[in-house]
Amino acid sequence: MQTFKRTATDAISIWWWTVDKITLLTILFLMLVGIFMTSSASLFMAERMNTGSIYFVTRHVTFLSAAFAVAIGLSFANQTIVRRLAIIGFLLSTILLILTPFFGVEVKGAKRWLRILGFSLQPSEFIKPFLAITNAWILSINASGSIALLTSAAICLPSIALIIIQPDIGMSVIIISIWVTQIFILGIRTKLMIACFAFLLVCGLLIYVSFDHARQRIKSFISPISTANYQIKKSLESFQHGGMFGVGPAEGKIKIHLPDAHTDFIFAVIAEELGSIFCIVIITMFFILIYRFYQNIKSKNDLFVILAAGGLIEQFALHVFINIGANIRILPAKGMTLPFMSYGGSSALSTGLTLGMLLALGRKKFNIKDLKIL
Known about the structure:
Layout: H1 11-18, H2 21-41, H3 43-48, H4 55-75, H5 79-103, E1 105-107, E2 110-116, E3 119-121, H6 123-141, H7 146-164, H8 169-186, H9 190-210, H10 212-222, H11 230-242, H12 266-298, H13 303-327, H14 345-362
Antiparallel strand pairs: 1-2, 2-3
Helix pairs in contact: 2-4, 2-12, 4-14, 5-6, 6-7, 6-8, 6-13, 6-14, 7-8, 8-9, 8-13, 11-12, 12-13, 13-14
Keywords: Cell shape, Glycosyltransferase, Membrane, Peptidoglycan synthesis, Transferase, Transmembrane, Transmembrane helix
Family: Belongs to the SEDS family. FtsW subfamily.
Organism: Candidatus Xenohaliotis californiensis
């Protein structure tokens, strides 16, 4: 039986004394809540689809177990291995993104998924963490040179274009935000930063003009009486009906009328059944997770690690913010999953990759004399 002695120098003991255990416990808590809430939110959907009442929760447990295994496995890696895996993953994800418009499965007018060995795979989910690491490596090679910046733009822009044509505006925003965050951390000149933001503004206007579904979502967000706001209205009703303490586990009724209750609007189900206070607990746990990741890398004296972790933390935090923001109508509705909570294989595995890389990059330097239990 593993005892994790401080004087031990085997790989598992070193991992135990250098990994952030508060982060691990927070991840496990959120995953357990996600499993419990998916079992409640997906019940009526499963019955409607004739798949058996535990179909979605069984798959969700499988996805989260795989994601946790990926996160733990990656957390053993050093930064060289993380970088190499990310570059390979980025190249493979790019190839899959290129294939998606031609061989992808169309759902609600968008081609975002590929069927591989009987599973639906969303390549855009996987390119996010891989791009954050790859871009950090490129920028850190020649931080003060324009060649690194141009190379960075050269790998980011094609990824954004491939995602936009699916179309998936929300995911493209995530990719853009990763790039902008890393450029900001790098500390480029003010004039160049202003030029970047002006470019992004022009891109946003072009997307609004060119994509009808993006335009409609923004219009429905602005207009509270829009019929396109059906799910948002039901989501807000869930918060009202749940009150402070909720109606009780699995007792929610409004979720029956939410087509995406087990995915995009899982937070609304939590609000109805467990109440607003528990929603605050969930938000607090996400904040703790993001804060711990920040604390683990802020003292690092390695530009690559800082840039890579900054991009990974940003994309994780933005996922949480966009999903919860859409549920409470401070942001337009967008098919963005809530990490650990929302049902979905690609999003779960992508989250596992993100957290595993953050755990690996944030591990403390192994020093037997200085080790302390967190």
